[in-house]
Specification:
The complex is a heterodimer of chains A (51) and B (240). In chain A, 16% of the residues are buried. Chain A has 51 residues and is an all-alpha fold. Chain B is globular and about 70 Å long. Helix content of chain B is 78%, strand content 0%. Chain B has a domain of 152 residues.
Chain lengths: 51, 240
């Protein structure tokens, strides 16, 4: 079966959005992990200094 | 400097709310630009509706070039000033550039299959774009396995500069070697019916590019702060 031109156009736009949202999702996860790690450093050291 | 002070110094530089608004704005801009261009551009004489792939393929390629230009500038800056923030900006731009580079290649294949009859050809533009992609995948791999931050930054800067030098070769490839890929699409070479759509999509992609690089940079700063704290802990004291 030969795909129509419209199928290729839809595939191109779908892959574009999947890529953009996929990377957004990756950044959100990475950011959450890095943020939690940063909290541990700042919070943990702060508590130690207060003690 | 105590690790907690250093960690605070590398803390995020903008509020999550600003970030969320910018993200929403840039993604809405992409959707609006695509809707406008798909709805208003007429079917092209030879390619018909396949021409509409241009609105995502060409801006993705431009963003690749722009991101790698940022890598070039900040890699040179790092080698000049040895400021680790320059290294982190270059690395963030390299990751986002590799993303757009990969997207450009895939979209080009999707466009090539119905127009050329093949998914891939060892054409000068396609091959040089693939080489560019491989260099920056190598750049990211390099950052993953070099543990010493200064050595990692120096080596990354060198690879980043070599990679970015490849950008003009990719751009000029269709003029230097007349193969399968068409001449570059730009507002000057396009039919006026397609110009506005291309411009709007390029601006929308630019907003996404800026957003991605900035956010990736914020994360890189947090990661670096964690890395530095681990270094301090391993040395059992404070870093200078």
């Amino acid at each position: 079966m030969i795909a129509s031109n419209e199928t290729f156009v839809v595939a191109a736009y779908a892959i574009t959005w999947l890529t953009l949202f996929g990377y957004l999702w990756r950044l959100a996860r990475k950011g959450a992990r890095a943020g939690a790690g940063h909290e541990r450093i700042v919070g943990g050291s702060g508590r130690e200094e207060a003690r | 400097m105590p690790s907690s002070d250093r960690a605070r110094e590398l803390a995020p530089t903008r509020s999550p709310r600003t970030s969320a608004w910018f993200a929403a704005g840039s993604f809405v801009a992409v959707a609006a630009a695509q809707a406008y261009s798909v709805a208003t551009s007429p079917a092209e004489g030879d390619m018909g509706h396949l021409q509409k792939i241009m609105y995502v393929h060409v801006p993705a390629a431009w963003m690749t070039f722009l991101a790698f230009f940022v890598v070039l500038v900040f890699s040179l800056k790092y080698l000049w000033r040895k400021d680790e923030n320059d290294d982190l900006i270059a690395a963030s731009a390299a990751e986002v550039g590799a993303l757009f580079n990969g997207l450009t290649l895939v979209l080009g294949m999707i466009w090539g299959r119905p127009t050329w009859g093949v998914w891939w050809a060892w054409d000068a533009r396609l091959t040089s774009t693939l080489v560019l992609f491989m260099i920056f995948v190598g750049y990211l791999a390099l950052r993953g396995f070099v543990e010493d931050p200064q050595q990692r930054a120096r080596w990354s800067a060198a690879v980043g500069i070599i990679g970015a030098i490849n950008v003009p070769i990719v751009y000029m490839s269709v003029m230097w070697w007349r193969t399968l890929h068409q001449q570059p699409s730009s507002a000057a070479t396009l039919d006026p019916a397609y110009t506005m759509g291309l411009r709007l999509n390029a601006i929308a992609f630019l907003l996404v590019l800026i957003y991605f690089i900035r956010w990736r940079y914020e994360i890189a700063r947090l990661e670096r702060a964690g890395e530095r704290a681990a270094e301090v802990a391993a040395m059992g004291g404070h870093l200078a």
